[in-house]
Design a protein that fits this description.
This protein is an alpha/beta fold. It contains 13 helices and 22 strands. The strands form 6 sheets. A 7-stranded mixed beta sheet has the order 14-15-16-13-12-18-19, with helices on both faces. The protein has a 6-stranded mixed beta sheet with strand order 9-8-7-10-11-21, sandwiched between helices. It has a 3-stranded antiparallel beta sheet with strand order 5-6-22, with no helix packed on it. α1 packs across α7, α4 runs parallel beside α5 and α9 crosses α10. The longest helix has 21 residues. It is globular. The relative contact order is 0.14.
Amino acid sequence: MTPSLDPSSLQTDLFIDGRWQQAADGATFAVENPATNEIIARVADGSPEDAALAIEAAGRAQAAWGKSTPRERADILRRAYDLVIANTERLASIMTAEMGKPLAEARGEVAYGAEMLRWFSEEAVRIGGDSATSVDGNTRILITKEPVGPSVLVTPWNFPLAMGARKIAPAVAAGCTMVFKPAELTPLTSLALVAIFKEAGLPDGVLNVVTTSSASGVVRTWTDSGIARKISFTGSTEVGKILLRQAADNVMRSSMELGGNAPFIVLADADIEKAVEGAMKAKMRNMGEACTAANRFFVHRSVVEEFGGKFSKKMSELQVGNGALAGIDVGPLIEQKGLEKVESLVADAISKGARVLTGGRRPEGPGYFYSPTVLVDVPMNAMLMSTEIFGPVAAITPFDSEDEVLRLANDTEWGLVAYVFTESMEKALRFSAGLEVGMVGLNTGLVSNPAAPFGGVKQSGLGREGGKIGIEEFLEYKYTAVAV
């Protein structure tokens, strides 16, 4: 159990129409600490019956909430921001207990998620429109924006506060009501965030939350309801495709932030110290359990030995353990299935000729830990090169020409983010233009920012979250023709 975390203070119920309540059938499911394998709490296990109550509440609340003033919505978001910041330590402790990340990193996620609330509090009062005169001069064209309507929000386990904030904030700013399904593995942080929105004054029915161990039944109830007009999902490409098919039945607006297979490219002229620093951020944020995590490290053959040596030294110095303890850099993976996946991917690469520079093993003891690992000479037919790793494993493959590495980087069905390290502006711009991704980190290993549009291309998703265009995902355009 995480020090300073009081289990009795945790919110574990569903939140429907402004009220905390148990599941209709009284069912619950366990939430485990992945560092100790202890049960932290039991959370209400919502059913399709609960889901129906939630979407009906959102539908009833939409008309009044959609007419709320931009300033009212902005003020609620700003109060929520202040409350999140004031509760940083508590939120970070909950997150570390149920997800595993070190407390320092959990605090960073709280700050990032809070900034989403502040950003969209400022965007709420800047929803604009347009006007023009028709080409024949007989009509004034007025363009206004209105909330899409009740929205389905589905978030992953790896960033339980930030992902909730990144979806809830623009929906609130735009005037949309919501039904929200947090991840089964990490619901406690999400429920704590919802409690903050209630305290901030969000009206009853605007935000409704159903935790569940049966995501498909709950979400299908929402997409089939005819009430929901929008779905925003972050998770695997496989599940995203299922949800897109379901959304199509009612022609729902869809935002999908899906899987990634990020290339990390180190060109011959790169500043190696800068590249290693960037690699640590791009690989080890959240123990590598991030869609933006660098997956495939392509390093020019002339610098692969230097980069590999310095990178593996840094990785070997990281302290692995319970994220609630002082001095820990790397917490556990989220569950046994994820640990077994990482072990099998490393074993496969080694069997095909990869060499281990550091790590490559599971420490003894409880918890789902895996040592930070660097492999070199990883062949392109290794499963590591075509699978989202979601763990602390870096796979290095040398390359000889820039055309070759650009082709290899794009040889994937995903296109979320890529990282490029070079001291040449010409090469930086060339790679930025040539990479088939939605985001590029040039000489940086961190691209996530509330002020920037987050999202990918190809099978990495549809739409964008954050930035000036993030709120547009929750707005419809209306054209009014006025005779003049």
